[in-house]
Amino acid sequence: MSSRIELHDVGQTFLVRGDDDRRLREFVALDALSLDIRAGEFLTLVGPSGCGKSTVLDLIAGLTQPSSGTLRVDGRPISGPGLDRSVVFQQYTLLPWRTAQANIEFALEAKGGLGKAERAERARTYLGLVGLANFANRYPHELSGGMKQRVAIARSLSYQPEVLLMDEPFGALDAQTRERLQEELVSIWERTGTTVVFITHDIEEAVFLGQRVAVMSARPGRIREVIEIELDRRPAADHDLRATTAFAAYRHRIWSLLREQHVAPQEVAHVA
Ligand SMILES: Nc1ncnc2c1ncn2[C@@H]1O[C@H](COP(=O)(O)OP(=O)(O)OP(=O)(O)O)[C@@H](O)[C@H]1O
C-alpha cells in the first residue's frame, strides 16, 4: 500500500502585489522542479525558508495546480485531493468538541464506506498505533501538544493512505517530545509501508527520518541535491544514532549545502 510520486519540470507562479506600487506581479515560487519519490520510501524535504517546500506538498496533495509541468501518483496525473494521499500539518487541526476517538471516527465517516462499528474499531486501532489507547475519551484540550499531534497522525493513518504528506508536523513540539515522535513515526512507517514525504527545517530531523533527504535551493525553488542516507538503524536501547560519526557527516553535508545558498533577488515580472 504505497505509491510512487513523480514531479516533472514543475513550475508554480503566484500573482502577488508589489510593495511599492501595489501592482500585480508574477512571483516564481518553483521553477522546473523534478523529483521522483519511490513507492514506500520516507523522503524528507529541507530548504531555506520560503524556498517552496509547502508549495510542493500542496501540489502533491492536489490542493493546488501547477503553473507548468506534471505531477503523477503511480502514473496517474494528480488532478485534485484524494483519499490515497493524506496531509498532516504543523497545527493539530482537531475538532475541540470531539474526543480523540470521535475525531478519528468523524474523519472516517466523512470518508465513507465503513459502518459505525468498523469506524470505532479502526479509530481504536490507530490510537493504539500511536500509543494513545488509554486516551481515546479525552478531548483535545485535555491532551498535550505531542498527544494532539499523535491523534492527528492517527487520523491521517486511519484512512490507510498510500501517501502521507507531513508539513513540519513536529515543529511546535518540545525537543524531547519531538524525538519520541520521530522514533514512533519511523516505527509506524516500517509497519505500514506508506510512502512518506516529510517537510522540516531541522537538519537532524531530516537525517534521522529520511531514507533520502531532498535539499531544495532558494527562490525559485528547485531540487538542489538528493542525498541517500545509509545509517545503521538497528533498534538497540543503547544505540544513539544521532551521536554517531556517520550521522554527523550527513548533518554537516546538508548544513553546508544550505549554507552555500544565498537568496536570489525576487524573480518578478510585470503582468499588469
Ligand atoms: N498563495 C500564494 N500566493 C502568493 N505567494 C505565495 C502563495 N503561497 C506561497 N507563496 C510564496 O511562495 C514562496 C514559497 O512558499 P512556501 O510556503 O512553499 O515556502 P516554504 O519553503 O514552505 O517556507 P517556510 O520554510 O518558511 O515554511 C514564498 O515566497 C511564499 O510567500
How does this model look, in words?
The protein is an alpha/beta fold and 272 residues long. It has 2 domains: 1-84 and 163-170 and 196-272, Rossmann fold (3-Layer(aba) Sandwich), CATH 3.40.50; 86-160, no CATH class. Helix content is 33%, strand content 25%. α2 packs across α3, α3 packs across α4 (145-158) and α6 crosses α7 (245-259). The radius of gyration is 20 Å and the shape is globular. The termini are far apart. The model is unreliable at 263-272 (pLDDT under 50). The structure holds adenosine-5'-triphosphate.
Major beta sheet summary:
6 strands, mixed
Helix content estimate:
25-40%
Ligand catalogue: adenosine-5'-triphosphate
Counting DSSP H or I runs of 4 or more residues, the number of helices is 7
CATH topology of the largest domain: Rossmann fold
CATH class of the largest domain: Alpha Beta
**In total, how many beta strands?**
11
Q: Low-confidence segments, ≥5 residues, pLDDT <50?
A: 263-272
Termini separation comes to 47 Å
SS-derived structural category:
alpha/beta
CATH architecture of the largest domain: 3-Layer(aba) Sandwich
Strand content: 25-35%
Radius of gyration: 20 Å
Q: Could you give the topology of this structure?
A:
Elements: E1 5-17, E2 24-37, E3 42-46, H1 53-61, E4 68-73, E5 76-77, E6 85-88, H2 100-111, H3 116-129, H4 145-158, E7 163-167, H5 175-192, E8 195-199, H6 203-209, E9 212-216, E10 223-228, H7 245-259, E11 268-270
Parallel strand pairs: 3-8, 3-9, 6-7, 7-8
Antiparallel strand pairs: 1-2, 1-4, 2-11, 4-5, 9-10
Helix pairs in contact: 2-3, 2-4, 3-4, 6-7
This protein binds adenosine-5'-triphosphate.
Keywords: ATP-binding, Nucleotide-binding, Transport
Protein name: ABC transporter ATP-binding protein
Organism: Nocardioides gansuensis
